[in-house]
Design a protein that fits this description.
The complex is a heterodimer. Chain A contains 5 helices and no strands. Chain A is mainly alpha-helical. Chain A folds into 2 domains: about 60 residues; about 50 residues. In chain A, helix 1 crosses helix 2 and helix 2 packs across helix 3. Chain B is mostly helical. Chain B folds into 2 domains: about 70 residues, no CATH class; about 150 residues, no CATH class. Helix content of chain B is about 85%, strand content about 0%. In chain B, helix 2 packs across helix 3. The longest helix of chain B is centred in the C-terminal third of the chain and has 27 residues. Chain B is globular, with a radius of gyration of 20 Å. Classes of the chains: A mainly alpha, B mainly alpha. At the A-B interface, helix 1, helix 2, helix 3, helix 4 and helix 5 of A face helix 2, helix 3, helix 4, helix 5 and helix 6 of B.
Chain lengths: ~120, ~240
């Protein structure tokens, strides 16, 4: 588990250093994810080493949103004031995005001959 | 309150131990209800935990900053968890090669639609710039969305809640909506759901169809990267 954490935190650290050093729009952990993907593609031992720890952590992904989510208690008045606007924005955008994405995928798959599975 | 009890309370409420523990208990309760419901998307464990913790903080008069001193250990793990998303993404790569073009087109269209329509509707209904910045990354997976909102000058805690609500809306609506439209390609359905409704949508896709689930996790991973790149640009248009 310790070697796996060294690799995972190392990717994040490298991501943070490069993202902040070069003022990139990508957050450090996202860059770290790209680095880990590259390491996994290049080295079979990294894949075997990282998988159990990574899947263990991802199995509890929902828990990690809780502390930030609780911060909403500080915004209850804002949510009450902007509730209808936010609800409309969230519902419309989510439905339209799913629809647009699924239709685009299906159409381009037909054009490129990747067809239906 | 007696003097001793007061001293004990001020010790506990000012250190990280109590609030770390309460966070785990609240999540455990939410997750147990979620499992008992047969994993219904509306019974979201995060939302239940947030409601429980919000009630406890309000009743005890604890400021959020003090709560966060304990909960920050959990919050910190969002970064490493984001890095770990590389693992399921790597597993899905062979499936991606076959449908690279449809996938990239759907990613771009889905991601831009999610941001532009959300910002457009909110702005039309009177949202200010800070609210728009908190709203822009809401279709990306929470750890990434929180990081993006921080960078855009939004309110990360508000973003966290908007992200969760987005996931729930997508998870509840996707199957009836796409069935009504007779869209049958599981790859397309899953991928679009992952792009628009991140992990909660992905979990829903896995319940409906294995292929849909695999493509949803690819969509979630790719949109995390694309939203980080596009959010500052799209937000600049509003």
């Amino acid at each position: 588990m310790i070697p796996a954490l060294v690799i995972i935190l190392g990717c994040q650290l490298a991501g943070e250093v490069i993202s902040r050093g070069l003022s990139l729009p990508l957050p450090g952990p996202v860059l770290g994810m790209v680095f880990l993907l590259a390491l996994m593609a290049g080295f079979a031992w990294v894949r075997d080493l990282v998988r159990p720890t990574a899947m263990g952590l991802l199995g509890h992904l929902s828990l990690l949103f809780v502390p930030a989510g609780v911060g909403v208690v500080a915004h209850l008045d804002l949510l009450a004031a902007k509730g209808p606007a936010l609800a409309a924005a969230l519902i419309l955008s989510t439905l339209l995005a799913i629809l647009a994405g699924a239709v685009t995928f299906t159409m381009v798959a037909k054009w490129t001959g990747a067809g239906d599975e | 309150m007696s003097e001793d009890a007061f001293r004990l309370w001020s010790y506990l409420s000012s250190g990280p131990l109590l609030w770390l523990w309460v966070t785990l208990v609240a999540y455990w309760a939410g997750d147990s209800l979620f499992r008992a419901s047969g994993r219904k998307p509306l019974v979201n464990p995060v939302l239940i935990a947030v409601a429980l913790l919000g009630t406890v903080l309000t009743l005890t008069g604890t400021p959020y900053e003090r709560y966060f001193e304990g909960a920050q250990f959990v919050h910190f793990m969002l970064g490493p968890a984001t890095v770990c998303l590389a693992v399921p993404l790597y597993g899905a790569l062979p499936k991606v090669r076959k449908v690279l073009l449809p996938l990239l087109a759907a990613l771009l269209v889905g991601s831009v639609t999610a941001m532009a329509t959300a910002l457009g509707v909110a702005k039309l209904l009177g949202a200010d710039q800070a609210l728009l910045a908190s709203l822009a990354p809401k279709s990306a997976t929470a750890p990434v969305a929180i990081g993006i909102a921080e960078g855009l000058g939004g309110e990360p805690t508000l973003t966290a809640v908007l992200v969760i609500l987005t996931g729930m809306i997508g998870a509840v609506a996707v199957t009836p909506m796409l069935n009504a439209l007779r869209l049958k390609d599981w790859r397309a359905r899953g991928f679009a759901t992952g792009v628009a409704a991140h992990g909660i949508g992905t979990a829903r896709a896995f319940q409906v169809n294995e292929t849909a689930g695999a493509f949803a996790s690819i969509g979630m991973g790719l949109n995390a990267v694309l939203t980080a790149l596009l959010a500052p640009i799209v937000l600049g248009l509003f």
